[in-house]
Every structure is written in C-alpha cells, then in structure tokens.
Write a structure and sequence with these properties.
Layout: H1 20-29, E1 31-32, H2 35-40, H3 43-51, H4 57-74, E2 80-81, H5 88-91, H6 98-101, H7 113-118, H8 121-132, H9 137-151
Antiparallel strand pairs: 1-2
C-alpha cells in the first residue's frame, strides 16, 4: 500500500520528490538515496517503489534488492546503505516520542497519547520524521493539522 499525505499532494503526479511513505521504507531498510538518484529512475520505477511493501523481512529484502538493481543500473554502483531505523520508536503506542512531544508551539496543543494511539503506524512515522526535520519545520504542523482534521 502507498500512503498519501495531503501536504505533499503536489508531488504525486510526477513523483518529483521522494514521498514520505517511501522515506519510511528507506529508513526501515537502511537505504540512502539522493533526490538526484530518485529522479534518475523512470516514473514507473518510482511508482513501483512507492507500492512495494516492507512489512516483513522478505519484503524489505525485495525492496532493497530492487533499489540496488536500480542504483547499479543508473549510477553504476551499489545502493548506499546505513543502519536501518527501528520502527519501534513510532510503533509504540505507549508514549509519544520526545521529538514529537517537544515540537509543539504555544498556539498548537501538543500531541496527546490518545491521538498517538489512534493514528496508524505510517501516520506516527510521518509526525516523528517531520519532528526531526531541521530543513522543513513547518511540515510537522501541516502533517499534524492533516491528521487532526481526519479525526473530526
């Protein structure tokens, strides 16, 4: 499944940036690609990456192997890897991660544990990832607003 977010809807027709849901897949498989690498892939290849699942170890291996194939095809080198990020940070429904809890502004109520438990894993990842972002801090509030509106 490919989860779409309203705040990045402008990129979906052309996949001109790496969608947040694909960034989650990259994080949990420990793969690093640049925007330049992403744009070197055909739209069909980018779409396939959007839809490939990474729920099981076998699916993660398929995703990684496909990206390695694409990297070798377009860059002539194996895909860059790093330590895979543990999904336990955003999977846990027992507490709101510190970066998410600390990212509130005076005019915006902080994320509650009830909200955190209500949201699906990919939504919690999006908030967590945006809370860590130094380059686009406003995206956190766009994602939070989107998820809170979905609840209503």
């Amino acid at each position: 499944m490919f989860h779409h977010y309203r705040h990045e809807s402008d990129i979906y027709p052309s996949l001109s940036r790496i969608p947040l849901h694909v960034r989650m897949k990259l994080d949990v498989t420990g793969i690093k690609i640049s925007l330049k690498d992403w744009l070197a892939f055909s739209i069909e290849e980018r779409t396939a990456l959007c839809h490939l699942p990474v729920e099981t170890e076998e699916e993660k291996q398929v995703f990684s192997s496909y990206l390695d194939f694409l990297s070798r095809r377009y860059r002539g080198a194996p895909v860059a890897t790093t330590a895979a990020m543990s999904s336990s940070v955003w999977e846990s429904a027992h507490q709101v991660p510190v970066p998410v809890a600390g990212k509130s502004a005076p005019e915006i109520p902080p994320v509650t544990i009830e909200e955190w438990r209500h949201w699906q894993s990919h939504q919690r990842y999006a908030l967590y990832k945006m809370a860590l972002s130094q380059s686009e801090p406003e995206q956190f509030f766009a994602v939070l607003k989107e998820f809170r509106e979905l609840k209503d």
